[in-house]
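This section describes the prediction task in plain terms. A model, or a person checking by hand, is given the sequence of a single protein chain and must write out its three-dimensional structure as a string of tokens. No templates, partner chains or ligands are provided. The sample shown here is typical of the held-out split.
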Amino acid sequence: MTILMNRLRGAPARRLLYGGLVLGAVATAAACGSSSPKTSASSSPKAPASSSGAASPGAAAPASATVSATSVPGLGTVLVNGQGRTLYILSSEKGGKVTCTAASGCTKFWPPVELSKGMMAAKAGNGVQQSMLGVAKGPNGVLYATYNHWPLYTFSGDSAPGQAHGEGIHSFGGTWYALSASGSPVTGTSHPKSSPSSGGGGYGY
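The expected answer:
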């Protein structure tokens, strides 16, 4: 009888101990399971957050104008811009006085080499003297690059490097010439000269 009573008393104790072990294991598993999502959730947003702060490619400052000297068929070695396009001067602008403006329609055919605000000269490329590069102020504060005090222009009739269709054209109050690396207009070439328009304002192309 004593043995039977001891067994009955021990059974609830074993059940309570077993139940406690089971509950402890479940709680431990739940704790482990809940910690793993926190780690992955906290780490995943890091990559997008850093990439969103990257600088936009379009935020770069505009490239400076570059003036170089190269050989152009029929002219010899003359000034060209950063894209290899022949640069011209207008004979009536000697000394840096700008007369080729958008208001007169000139810059539509003879785009000037413009400088960004604050620049005092274009960048000297191969064969060009930096000391001869300067700036002239056009209408509305537009800054024109100059070489030996001549404002520089490209010509809308030139579609590729090595062309000089603007050489010798009479228009807008003067004659257009390519410029040598010494700063002198290249005149007396074999390029045909266009006749001026009736009013002297057209580019005569």
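For orientation: Helices lie at 2-43, 46-51, 106-109.
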